[in-house]
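dumping this here so i dont lose it
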């Protein structure tokens, strides 16, 4: 049994199920657990649904947790055999609405960070009525502006350019050791250089990324998002209306990728956002699942109580 198979078996023993759902030509792998109001969990890069297991087990008594592998990631389909520049945030958003349609969930809350946070913003602009609330974790957003590309920060974002090269996935996946070395850097460094956060799951992550197409599937996000990322760095990204959906933000004080002080412009993009800073790196949900669970209960539970009162 591989490390990934064991991780899946442990999740299944705890009651987490996985199934494939077709949404019009794309087979989406979805993990589900619990009962109650639906919460959609959107992972970042380099992640897949398994990163949510600790949070799912903490919230399953109050919510139905729906954790898909996003397009190109995990066991979800890879529409293109090679690099695919169509995996934009908008494309992912359409995928997620189609998935929730297939599950019969018209209105739901969303939790996500990193890539998932981009998808949440696209969903919020496209069909805001369907989202009861959004809980963001260390959030990339246009307000980062030119700061994200400052010379002193390039050491943190180099990979976003490397992963657009047509041979990058082949190089990273040329051996199991090269795959482990590459992804261990991001898992450990973004966790505040704490190898214990993903230590028990490192080999499961390597198993995941050594599956055919999975490295390129994740890299496709950076290929697809490059045009908009350049516009925001140049200050030319077209403005969109502020998001009116109730939105809560948790930000790691030690996030090396998205500095906590760069949350200063959230109010330009969200109406009345609320934020708390926690003692983590980039992976708030993996480093402090108990804190995220408590926040989710309070935030989404408060929205439900408010809806009942109204």
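and the seq i came up w/
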């Amino acid at each position: 049994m591989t490390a990934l198979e064991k991780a899946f078996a442990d999740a299944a023993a705890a009651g987490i199920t996985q199934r494939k759902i077709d949404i019009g030509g794309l087979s989406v792998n979805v993990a589900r657990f619990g009962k109650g109001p639906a919460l959609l969990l959107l992972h970042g890069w380099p992640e897949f649904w398994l990163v949510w297991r600790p949070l799912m087990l903490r919230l399953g008594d109050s919510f139905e947790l729906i954790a898909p592998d996003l397009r190109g990631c995990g066991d979800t389909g890879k529409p293109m055999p090679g690099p695919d520049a169509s995996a934009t945030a908008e494309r992912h958003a359409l995928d997620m609405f189609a998935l929730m349609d297939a599950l019969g969930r018209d209105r739901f809350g969303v939790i996500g960070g990193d890539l998932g946070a981009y998808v949440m913003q696209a969903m919020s602009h496209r069909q805001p009525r369907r989202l009861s609330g959004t809980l963001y974790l260390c959030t990339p957003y246009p307000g980062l502006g030119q700061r994200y590309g400052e010379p002193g920060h390039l050491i943190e974002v180099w990979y976003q350019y490397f992963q657009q090269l047509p041979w990058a996935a082949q190089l990273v996946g040329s051996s199991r050791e090269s795959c482990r070395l590459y992804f261990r850097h991001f898992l450990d460094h973004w966790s505040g250089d704490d190898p214990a956060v993903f230590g028990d799951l490192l080999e499961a992550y390597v198993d995941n990324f050594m599956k055919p197409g999975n490295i390129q599937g994740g890299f496709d996000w950076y290929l697809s998002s490059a045009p908009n990322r350049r516009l925001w760095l140049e200050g030319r990204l077209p403005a969109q209306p502020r998001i009116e959906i109730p939105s809560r933000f948790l930000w790691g004080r030690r996030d090396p990728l998205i500095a906590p002080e760069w949350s200063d412009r959230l109010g330009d993009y969200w109406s009345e956002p609320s934020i708390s800073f926690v003692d983590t790196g980039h992976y708030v949900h993996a480093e402090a699942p108990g804190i995220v669970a408590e926040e989710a209960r309070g935030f989404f539970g408060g929205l439900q109580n408010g809806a009942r009162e109204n």
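The chain has a mean pLDDT of 96.
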